[in-house]
Amino acid sequence: MKKLLLAVFSSLLISSCAIFRIHEFGETPGKPGRYPRFGLKDYLIGQLDEYRAGYDVTFYNMDLDLDPYNKMIGGEVAIHFRALEKLKTIRIDLYRNLHISSLQLSGTEIPFLRNDRAVIASLSDSLNVGRDYILKVKYEGKPISAKNPPWSGGMVWKNDNEGNPWVGVTCETEGASIWFPCKDHISDEPDSVRLRMSVPSGLQVVSNGILESHISKPGKEVFTWSTHYPVNIYNITFYAGKYEHFNDTMITEQGILNLDYYVLPENLEKAKNHFRQVKDVISFYSRSFGPYPWIREGFKLVEGPYEGMEHQTAIGYGSGYSNLRRLGGDHIIVHETAHEWWGNAVSVSDFRDIWLHEGFATYSEMIFAEHKKGYDSSLIYARHWLAGWINNKLPVVGPPDVSYWDSKDNDVYNKGAMVLHTIRNVLNDSTLFFHILQTFYGEHAAASHVTTADFIEVVERKTGKDWDKFFEAYLYNREVPVLNWYPGSYDKVQDPDSNVTKRVSFVVAKWTNVPEGFSMPVKLDCKDGNASLIIEVTTKPVLFYLKDMSSCNQLICNKRLSYYKTVIKKSILEEIEIPFKNH
Ligand SMILES: [Zn+2]
Fold this sequence. Notes:
Layout: E1 5-9, E2 14-15, H1 40-46, H2 50-53, E3 55-67, E4 72-83, E5 89-93, E6 98-105, E7 108-109, E8 112-115, E9 118-122, E10 132-141, E11 154-159, E12 165-170, E13 192-200, E14 204-207, E15 210-217, E16 220-227, E17 238-241, E18 244-252, E19 255-263, H3 268-274, H4 277-289, E20 299-303, E21 308-309, E22 315-317, H5 331-341, H6 355-373, H7 375-386, H8 411-427, H9 430-444, H10 452-463, H11 468-476, E23 482-495, E24 500-512, E25 519-526, E26 532-538, E27 542-545, E28 554-557, E29 565-568
Parallel strand pairs: 2-28, 3-13, 19-20, 20-22, 23-29
Antiparallel strand pairs: 1-23, 3-4, 4-10, 5-9, 6-7, 6-10, 8-9, 11-12, 12-17, 13-16, 14-17, 15-16, 18-19, 21-22, 23-24, 24-27, 25-26, 25-28
Helix pairs in contact: 4-5, 5-6, 6-7, 6-8, 8-9, 9-10
The structure holds zinc ion.
């Protein structure tokens, strides 16, 4: 047996890990962020108390009048529901600034109290479990105006360039009870919605689903829209304005999909050209995730008086008809259309898991960039536009039951997307990664609601591995995993008689800023040539021989941009016994 002798400690391999770091990439700020002090208002919307949990809404039948000149809305909303509990008290929601003139259950007026958005009604008899009821609410008032739609929502009252009223509403974080009475909790999606809305003559109304009818009356236009798919409460919406309409179709595996576009008249020609990209976006997502979820009711882009919002089958578009070169498409179209899969079809039951909407839609941007511009360009997109804007002040998954989501914190978007990208890198198998996304979509699009645990379950089932520590590190801790590593080499004497020396290259690595037991592979690539090596790094320092990569002059770690910080740390050598050092 030949004896391995250590001769001298040799030069380091040059590492270019650092070239992938830019400002803020992978940084954990010393000071954690703070959640706001949650109070009654937060629990009133976020918590499903017994008076809301005890019934299931099946249908909202809305008959409303919109007065854009006085910024008023009002009418009657019939809430069809099925009793799940023997409730004697039932709660719906409506912002306090909207006046309720009548509340009837099955035709009988019922007394009610109001506390902030909660409308608490006392019933003369307990509800019968399993029976269907209709609660009719007559109301009117001036709903709140949005401060910064869609992020800070409310009604958006604008005029187009010709002075015509142009109105919309966004309410994802505020709740739909800012404009109509409802059970304002994202866990309860009605099976269908009909919105009949009258507006002043000359205006049109566009809403979710399909246009059932349009009637002109003296001084009024009445539009009736309906959707027969389950819909998130904040996705029920309308747009009122003077629109031009054009349509198109595309062939999908499920049949013909109608594409309808409503734009301001001055943008008609621009839109006809610009919206051509929609077919590519929809067919790319259909191939990547699964079939478009609302084939019976089509796809719509509606020019709205705000930048964009993923309103189901009626996406709000307002980003100026321009493409992002780095993306290869219009950011609003690419992002909001992805929400038809992630957010609208697959929906969370608590905003704490909103990364399943936003992180997935943001990762959709990245893979769309990959589709249009190639894989390397998608990494540039990730490096500069996603990973460079992550705060790491709070965990991605937030606190339960308070409807908490700070949409100003990019992490549910960008860190969520980078978590998905990191999973794809860990798998080192894009086919399996997309199979996981397709399975998650396929199993949960039509079902009720999802939590982060549902996604973890699919990942674990499809990989046959335990991912608890991974998700704990990336979603439930705010810290960024740190790869502590040291690439080095020794000159060794292979045979003392012949005195032949050969270089032994190695890497010592471990993870910190992760839960105990965390383990994640790291791919090392040689800059020149195709040699690469995957090392399984744990929280204990381990030495990995580079073998085939010994001749590599420039070692690149994290070429595919998983989300972690890298630190070259020579002192890690002291934490481990180097075998040839002891000879
Ligand atoms: Zn989004």
